[in-house]
Amino acid sequence: IECVSLSPMMEAVPAPPESERVCVFGTGDMGRSLGLRLLQAGYGVVFGSRRPHSSSSLIPHGAQVLGHAAASQSAHLIFIAVQREHYDFLVPLANQLKGKVLVDLSNNLRKNQYPEANAEYLQSLVPGAEVVKGFNTLSAWSLQNGPSDANRQVYICGESVEAKQAVIAVAIKLGFSALDQGFLSVARELEDFPLQLFPQWRLPLRIAIGLSAAFFFYLLIRDIIYAYVTQSKDISFRIMVSLANKVCPIVSLIMLSLCYLPGVLASFLQLYRGTKYRRFPDWLDRWMLCRKQLGLLALGFAFLHVLYTLIIPIRYYVRFKALVLIINTPLSLSLSQIRENRTTQFDTTTAWRGDSYLSLGILGFGLYVLLGITSLPSVINTLSWREFSFIQSKLGHLTLLLCTAHTYLYGWNRFLSSSTYKWYTPPGYMLCLVLPSVVLLLKLLLITPCVDRTITRIRQGWERGADQRNPKDSQPLIP
Ligand code: NAP
């Protein structure tokens, strides 16, 4: 039984022509949100529902709700806002849906849930209709919040160009930019899109967690357990700030090096192969693709290091030490100085070292932040390719150099003191210097004029031995 239900507003307004009318099957969250946006954009909206009477109170004002068959007759374009499991209700409607454009909005709960994509399944149920996959990457919530707050891109795919154009026209009128992804075979990819869970962040996050855990336990043994075992001193309270403030810069510096190491390795690989026309190994490709995430995580750790450093003066331990020093030092110091007939000398070298250490750290962090800002898509869009590569490559390596120098200055002459190597192990900052030093040395080799000239030629398409391999290539095009 087809029951018609009009909202009070709709009764007074004449029905828009079919081209300006769209149908939405399903009055659930997605159907209602989409219907509201369509109404706001000026479309006439007819909902198709199993229970038009009870659904009429749910739908937005200005929309109409009918049974599925009647609703499908009112518009050429039909959005299917129903879960895929219930698609079989469309089979009896196959005749009415012939020639109509059906937009499949559905998503799944997990990847590969069904043997075929939902949109392909829909097409098999209603072979006479033109199925277009689209709008599934939006959420009902974002649709309701309006164009200012929502994701602005809509991905679509389908076999029929006309059907896709009809859907694109609606998407544009709703304030979205529509991206045609090709044929219906791409539907599975679009359906997997909302199920992605930070795919490019996984490897960098694993590296960050792995490095943090490894260095935390290493420093725990070297700093806290060593003091307990050898001097019976309980300094476990240092775990919260001192240890954290050692782990953060170590992880940050290693991750920044990991950000620049694949680029350097790729250059050496191209030099070795003498061509850029061969694919990099998969592992290197994957590594290069997550450099931005590695860099942003490195910046996060650097930021934590800055915060931990800034709170040092307000720590109880530090204030207590300072107080004890003020109370005890002048008397004991003056007595010992009088006894030994000496005065405290200002050590210019130590002052230079301290100031340089701090200054390089500040400059390095400043550039770090600049790198982070210029990796934002909105900022990248305002930069030319040359500006982007200048910042990310040249200033990036400079950042690595400054941060590495900052760490070397932290170590200073302690590298040579045997007391630094507790239980014959090097301190964490020494270990973390290995990778950045290697990256910087390799980069130095790459920018030497003769190597740089060769790598530039390779990147411009020159191939080593190409002339011998294919003599025709070297012949002039015009005799
Ligand atoms: P929902 O709230 O569960 O609503 C689905 C609607 O389908 C129901 O309100 C009902 O409408 C209809 N329906 C239920 N069982 C049916 C059956 N056996 N036969 C025919 N129709 C039936 O789901 P939803 O959240 O709106 O999602 C709808 C579709 O959009 C799903 O495929 C989902 O994957 C997709 N999607 C949802 C979102 C979101 O944010 N919610 C985002 C992207 C894509 P009537 O009672 O009026 O018949």
From TrEMBL:
One Gene Ontology molecular-function label: ferric-chelate reductase (NADPH) activity
Catalytic reactions on record: 2 Cu(+) + NADP(+) + H(+) = 2 Cu(2+) + NADPH; 2 Fe(2+) + NADP(+) + H(+) = 2 Fe(3+) + NADPH
GO biological process: copper ion import; iron ion transport
InterPro entries per UniProt: Fe3_Rdtase_TM_dom (IPR013130), NAD(P)-bd_dom_sf (IPR036291), P5C_Rdtase_cat_N (IPR028939), STEAP_metalloreductase (IPR051267)
UniProt-recorded name of the protein: STEAP family member 4
Signal peptide: none
Record-annotated Pyrroline-5-carboxylate reductase catalytic N-terminal domain positions: 21-107
Cited Pfam families: F420_oxidored (PF03807), Ferric_reduct (PF01794)
Co-factor(s): heme b; FAD
Ferric oxidoreductase domain residues: 250-402
Entry superkingdom: Eukaryota
Keyword Translocase listed: no
Similarity remark: Belongs to the STEAP family.
Gene transcribed to yield this protein: STEAP4
